[in-house]
Fold:
Amino acid sequence: MESVICKRLEARQFVLIAEIGVNYYDIAAKENITPMEAAKLMMREAKEAGIHAVKFQTYKAGTLAAKASPSYWDTTEEKTTSQYELFRKFDFFGYEEYKELQAYAEQIEIEFFSTAFDYEAADYLEGLMNVYKISSSDLSNLPFIEYQAKKNKPIILSVGASDLPEIEAAIDVIRKHNDKKIVLMHCVLEYPTPYADANLNKIVSLSRQFPELIIGYSDHTKPTDDCDIIKTAYNLGAVCIEKHFTLDKSLPGNDHYHGMDPEDAKKILSAIAYMDLIRGSGEIKCLETELTARKNARRSIVAAMDIPVGTKITAEMLTFKRPGTGISPSLIEEVVGKETIDLIVEDTILMDGMIK
Structure:
C-alpha cells in the first residue's frame, strides 16, 4: 500500500495518526473479544472516523524495561508502578499478528505502522510498513536509531523530554545512513500533559531550527470539544498529529484517559478542514469573489465640471469617485494634457474614447 502519510506530507496536507498502541487489550477485555478482534475493531473505527493511519507499539517487556523500572505516568489513572509489570500485560503480539494487522489495514485502506522497541521488532516490521516511528524514549539510544535508519525508510522521530543537542545528534545519525523524510514530533512526556505544559511554541522553534524537516506533534493532553490544542499546533506548523486512540476514554489505565475516541477524531478533522478553508491558498491576487466589489468600490477619474469639446484637460477639471468602471486614477498623468473629443458633463466618469 502506498504511504498515505508520505503522500499527504509531500502535499503539505494534514495527517492524523491514531496511536492505538496496546489499547486493544483493554478493549478486548471490555467487549469480551480477542485482542486481534479488538485491534481490528479499533482500526475500522479509526478508518470510519477519517483517520489517515494507525500505529501500534511492538515490544517485549523483558527487552524494554528492567524489572526495577519505576512508573512515570499518573498513577491515579494507571496504578501499576513498574514499567516492566505494565508492559508485560500487553506484549503478546509478534510477527504473525502484526502481519495480519498490516494485511487488514490494506484491506480497509488505512496505513499501518508500529513503533519498534527492540532490534527483532525493527527487523520483522520492515516489510510491513512504509515508515519507522522512533519513540521519545529512544532519542538517546543512538545505536538503535542508527539500526532503523539503515532500513532506509522515512522516519517519524518524537523529541519529548529532550534538549537541542540530543535532537541534533539523533538527526545526524539518521542522515549518515538515510536521506528519506524525517518528521520531528514535538512531544511532552507527561501522561496526561496539562494544557499549561503543552509548550506548543516549541513547534515554531523546531521549524526554525530544522527548516528542512517536517514538524509534527504527538499529543498527550486530554481531548477537548473545541480541539484548541490540535488546532493551535496545526496553526503553528505541525502538519502531522499523532494522538493515542481508544474506543472508551473512561477505561482505567494505560493510554485511554488521554486518548481520542472516534468522535474526537471527527471533531479534529472537521476543525482542521475548516482551518484549511479559511486559510485559503495564500496566493497574492484578487479573488473571483472580489471582482464585483473591486469594480464598484474603487474609483474612476470623474469630471469635476463641464469640460467643453476640444478642451485640453487640466488636473483641476478632474476628481476621483466610485465606481471604478472608468479610467483609473492611476492613469491620471495620461489624461492630463489630452483634449476632449466631445463635451464631458460634470460628474461624468471618464472612459476610453472620450479623450484623444
Observations:
- Residues 160 and 189 are 6 Å apart (CA to CA).
- Strands lie at 15-21, 53-58, 111-116, 132-134, 155-158, 182-187, 214-219, 240-244, 300-303, 318-321.
